[in-house]
What does this fold into?
Amino acid sequence: MLTTERIVLLRNLEESIGVDFRNIETLSQALTHSSYINENHLLDQDNERLEFLGDAILKLTITEYLFTNYPEKKEGELSKLLAIWVSDQLLAKKAKELSLGSYMLFGKNEAANDGANIDSNLGDALESIFAAYYLDNGLESAKQAIHSIYQPIFSLQEDLTFLKDYKTILQEYTQTLGFGIPDYSLIETSGPDHNKTFLVEGKVTMEDRIVTKQATAKTKKAAEQATAKLITEELKI
It folds into this structure.
């Protein structure tokens, strides 16, 4: 049962996003981190399953938009745009613009570790909101919410130069030179289930040398991107 204070807080968030939940508890679940559930010995009330569904809804919505509005682009070009527009970095940026961290429920340890500012937590929460709104109001309403949040991107008014896909940049560079594709290996996974850290090593084999770099992040995908970024810097691409 939600407190009156939390309901008021969530209603303020609804207004910011431009949504109207019939069941406000669904929105609250979308903003509940697994650490909070684990600490309070609750069952199946965190946002992990919602994030899984929200990711699919977001990709469907953006794919549909790209297909409809960019008829001149080939499949490869559309795929690159899709990867950028649904990237963890962009989702985290959008979540920060909505101050989602201040609405989320965390366990004490996660909160102490600045969980409200961790990109993966924020991006997952935003995707969970998309799923929650889909379950509460249907697919078209969820699409409308996504369109509202993405409007500055759709209208090409938002600067996305910070969203470089370093893995693609590095792969295109190595393949152009005939060196094949970079190799990424998961070296180590550490931390509890709700706050894992991934250490990834990237390797590029060239004619005269082998370049390797390691990086850590809160997701394996983000660690690979961070590793690729270090290698592109080393190679001055």
Observations:
- The chain has a mean pLDDT of 92.
- The chain has eleven helices and three strands.
